């Protein structure tokens, strides 16, 4: 009965609930991106959030398999909300205590973000049919771009309001004024989380988890009836088993056993390696972007004006490259496959990074617009490629990615020229890892991959 249930899931027509699930799961990544990219004025806190995200992905990825996706989905969001509010109320004197408090709550936010990543990806992949599973995943990950855009708009708005109120045109704003501004920016990130929480709690457990792990195919069938335009007779069509027979044996091998590595070792290695390499570049770029485009120009600005300029640049990049890249992946991923767009994305990123580095000073002095376009291309190829396709074995692989992100953030202090060469080499290694280890899953069901 469970195999027939999965067949109906894989071949169900795209309908309202699928889009609702995309929005609910996508709002999680929207919130995640908002928090990771709204920390521009205090970038040293980013590494703390990334460490929390790595831990959260490991813990929530495993607990999601043991206790169910739905049970953990709300908890991850609650951690994000609690951490967001805590960031805004970080207190203490002297300054070091405030940073310690902020670091703790950023870590808490990171754990929630880390928990949200594998759960969102797993839920949408288990709800989607096999024809458009990649498309739905791309739609969910596109919300990262909108989250970055939202954090940039909020930062610009807050900075403009405070600039006009306090008129810091000749002197830097007072510590109290700037202190209120960054707290407000971080706390506003709780709004999308609150709006999403109700709908997450209303979502039923995924039918695949209920049938395979909880051995309750009847409940899985009832859940499908409730959310999909499909009757009980349609789901069980052609099956004459009694409800008492609707069971599915659980997996007989534990995590990290010989059987686990036999069936999933290649996928886990491929996804973890490529995600690790991608995030070295993906998360170190925001740290360097102000140095690349503004160099020493921000030293003469007030804190509000400097934050406004950085946020404006981030918003332009999101609109011109990140979101278009995700949209392109939306149309391509189920047509030409994950393997091709991931490999091509890595190759083109490497080419652009090496091309920028060779005449970097010339670009910087005489062709700044060309420099902006080329950096935009790397962001486009990342999102129409490895940032969207690295979604197998999500908890462990995502944690590997965040370890790469921490390394990338720390690497940004090496200098622009050296970092560009390293980025190009990392992308080349990502292409090699993709070609050697990654398996194409286009058009296949989750059970076929198993």
TrEMBL record:
GO cellular component terms?
membrane
Organism this protein belongs to: Eucalyptus globulus
Keyword tags: Membrane, Transmembrane, Transmembrane helix, Transport
Which residue ranges does UniProt annotate as crossing the membrane? Answer: 43-60, 72-91, 97-115, 136-158, 180-199, 315-333, 339-356, 405-432
| InterPro entries named in the record | MFS_dom, MFS_sugar_transport-like, MFS_trans_sf, Sugar_transporter_CS
Q: Where in the cell is it found?
A: Membrane
Q: What is its main location?
A: membrane
Q: What is this protein called?
A: Major facilitator superfamily (MFS) profile domain-containing protein
Keyword Lyase attributed:
no
Tell me where in this chain the Major facilitator superfamily (MFS) profile domain is found.
1-442
What is the membrane topology here? Answer: Multi-pass membrane protein
Q: Which Pfam families match?
A: Sugar_tr
Stored Gene3D superfamilies: MFS general substrate transporter like domains
Q: Which domain of life is it from?
A: Eukaryota
């Amino acid at each position: 009965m469970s195999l027939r249930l999965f067949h109906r899931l894989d071949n169900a027509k795209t309908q309202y609930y699928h889009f609702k699930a995309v929005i609910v799961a996508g709002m999680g990544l929207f919130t995640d991106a908002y928090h990771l990219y709204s920390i521009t004025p205090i970038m040293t806190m980013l590494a703390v959030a990334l460490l929390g995200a790595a831990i959260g992905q490991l813990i929530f990825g495993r607990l999601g398999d043991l206790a169910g996706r739905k049970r953990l989905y709300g908890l991850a969001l609650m951690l994000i909300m609690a951490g967001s509010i805590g960031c805004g109320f970080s207190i203490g004197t002297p300054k070091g205590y405030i940073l310690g408090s902020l670091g703790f709550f950023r870590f808490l936010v990171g754990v929630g973000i880390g928990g949200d990543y594998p759960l969102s990806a797993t839920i949408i992949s288990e709800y989607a049919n096999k024809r458009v599973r990649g498309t739905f995943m791309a739609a969910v990950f596109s919300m990262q771009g909108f989250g970055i855009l939202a954090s940039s708009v909020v930062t610009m708005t807050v900075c403009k309001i405070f600039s006009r109120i306090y008129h810091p045109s000749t002197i830097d704003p007072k510590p109290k004024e700037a202190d209120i501004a960054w707290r407000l920016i971080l706390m506003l990130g709780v709004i999308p989380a609150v709006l999403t929480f109700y709908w997450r709690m209303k979502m039923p457990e995924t039918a695949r988890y209920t049938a395979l792990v909880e051995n309750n195919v009847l409940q899985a069938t009832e859940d499908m009836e409730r959310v999909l335009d499909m009757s009980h007779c349609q789901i069980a069509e052609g099956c004459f088993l009694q409800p008492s027979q609707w069971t599915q044996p659980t997996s007989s091998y534990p995590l990290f056993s010989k059987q686990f590595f036999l069936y999933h070792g290649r996928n886990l290695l491929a996804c973890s390696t490529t995600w690790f390499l991608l995030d070295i570049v993906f998360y170190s770029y925001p740290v360097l972007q102000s140095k690349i485009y503004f160099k020493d120009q921000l030293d003469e600005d007030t804190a509000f004006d400097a934050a406004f300029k950085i946020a404006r640049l981030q918003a332009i990049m999101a609109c011109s490259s990140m979101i278009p890249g995700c949209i392109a992946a939306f149309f391509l991923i189920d047509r030409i496959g994950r393997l091709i767009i991931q490999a091509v994305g890595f190759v083109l990123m490497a080419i652009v990074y090496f091309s920028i580095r060779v005449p970097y000073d010339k670009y910087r002095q005489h062709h700044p617009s060309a420099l902006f376009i080329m950096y935009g291309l790397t962001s486009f190829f990342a999102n129409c490629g490895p940032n969207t396709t690295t979604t197998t074995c999500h908890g462990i692989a995502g944690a590997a990615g965040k370890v790469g992100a921490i390394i990338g953030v720390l690497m940004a202090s090496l200098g622009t020229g050296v970092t560009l060469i390293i980025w190009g080499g990392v992308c080349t290694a990502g292409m090699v890892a993709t070609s050697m280890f990654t398996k194409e899953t286009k058009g296949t069901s989750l059970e076929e991959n198993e």
